[in-house]
Amino acid sequence: MKVVDIRTHVLLDPGFDVDATSSAQDTIVVEVETDEGIVGIGETDLNAWIARACIEAPGTHTMDRGLKQMLLGQDPLDPERLWQELYVGSAMSGRRGAVVHALGALDIALWDICGKARGVPCWQLWGEATRTELTPYASLQPEVDSFDGYVSSMVGWATRARAMGFRACKLEATFSGPYVHKGLAGPDERITEVVTAVRDAVGPEMTIMVDVQYAFDSVERALKVIESWDGLDVFFLETPLWTDDVKGYAELSARSPVRIAAGEWLSTRHDFEVLIDEGGVQVAQPDIGRVGGLTEARRVCDLAANRGRLIVPHAWKTGISVAVAAQLAMVTPHMPFFEFLPAELCESRLRKDLTHDELVFHEGSLRPPQRPGLGVELDRDALEHFAAAAKRIA
Fold first, then answer.
1. From CA 241, how far away is CA 245, in angstroms rounded?
2. Do 152 and 167 sit in the same domain of this protein?
3. Which of 9, 106, 268, 387 has the fewest CB atoms inside 10 Å of its own CB, making it the most exposed?
4. Is 154 found in the same domain as 87?
5. What is the DSSP letter of 231?
6. 145 or 279: which carries more pLDDT confidence?
7. Same structural domain, 241 and 153
8. Same domain (yes/no): 245, 317
9. In which domain, by residue range, is 137 found?
């Protein structure tokens, strides 16, 4: 089998809001086509126009080759070998960051091809299932521009998630730092107000996680907020410090009574080795596309297992990324939850409309994927609609 074509689709929700801090408003989808008619799909969480350039740009020498250029003509049924070839062949431009993120989309598509060629879901290519059901958490970020409205909407969504059967939710509560959403800047006490209101509404049984998205500029500031959560039973605090502050993460992880989680921006297992071994985080959060695809995400999972850490992947994109996370979860026993954006609890039209998902949510869990490959299909009409919107602003 040979790769004969690679198509990149830059997609945009036509209702995107430049004041929203949400990468679910756009995406890049790749299709890798083989000479036997099997097509694999993948995506990554990266500026879609940059991702397309990383894939389609040509190269002129052996250490700075284009990803598409290297992949055409290759046998897609050996993703691990191809990952290494693409990683080394693009090293002068890549090695970390955008090029590795783009490589991740291609790697996901290659594994989709492998599953489809074998007639099995991707997870069966990697070993035995470690669970009989999957436990997603509802990732909640209201799209409102007042704090009172934010709290009300967050409580409403969390309550609805509980009524739908979710056993866990994550609250995006960011009122300072680079990720302030919809201009809702305010004091740190607002974070605790949100968490308290949700805990009061959903009761003690539901697991609550909190994401402050790099809001704190010091360990002491982060600890002050964490200490105000006494009795609220927060499962983890996500990305409290800037991603490069490894020493800060080490101190915070050692002193915090709440687990510290991070890693959504990192690429390759090498970055995670530093985050875990030097930064001490208890929960590693690879975004499967960004880290370099399923090939590299599986290596990060092994790294975490060897060090006794949890894996809770980041998946703030479309149904493709959710399907990818579900495949990985099936063979990762130390993944207690993964991020899930049900259409009923998100604003992104890309998440609602782009794919036909295999995953069936029932009584707090998802059934194991059974369809060949990733088990997800593109809605072609939606693809064309979102592609046309992207072209209008290019």
1. 7
2. yes
3. 387
4. no
5. T
6. 279
7. yes
8. yes
9. 125-376
CA–CA dist 223, 241 (Å, integer)? 11
Q: Do residues 142 and 210 share a domain?
A: yes
Q: Which of 12-16, 78-82, 377-381 has the lowest mean pLDDT?
A: 12-16
CATH number of the domain where residue 66 is located: 3.30.390.10
Distance of CA 216 to the CA centre of its chain: 22
In this prediction, residue 359 carries a pLDDT of 84
**Alpha carbon of residue 390 to chain centroid:** 22
76/183 same-domain check: no
> What percent of the chain lies above the pLDDT cut of 70?
99
Name the most confidently modeled range: 124-138, 165-179, 241-255, 314-328.
241-255
Q: Side by side, which strands form the sheet with 283-284? A: 310-311, 283-284, 259-262, 234-238, 207-211, 168-172, 136-140, 338-340
DSSP character at residue 124: G
Instruction: Say how far apart CA 36 and CA 207 lie, in whole Å.
Output: 46
pLDDT tens digits, one per residue of 10-19: 999 998 877 7
- From 22, 24, 25, select the one nearest 14 (Cα to Cα): 25
Tell me how many domains the chain contains: 2
What CATH code is carried by the domain that includes residue 208? 3.20.20.120
Each residue's pLDDT tens digit, 205-225? 999 999 999 999 999 999 999
Rounded to whole angstroms, the Cα distance separating 100 from 106 reads 10
Q: Three-class SS string for 129-169?
A: CCCCCECEEEEECCCCCCHHHHHHHHHHHHHHHHHHCCCEE
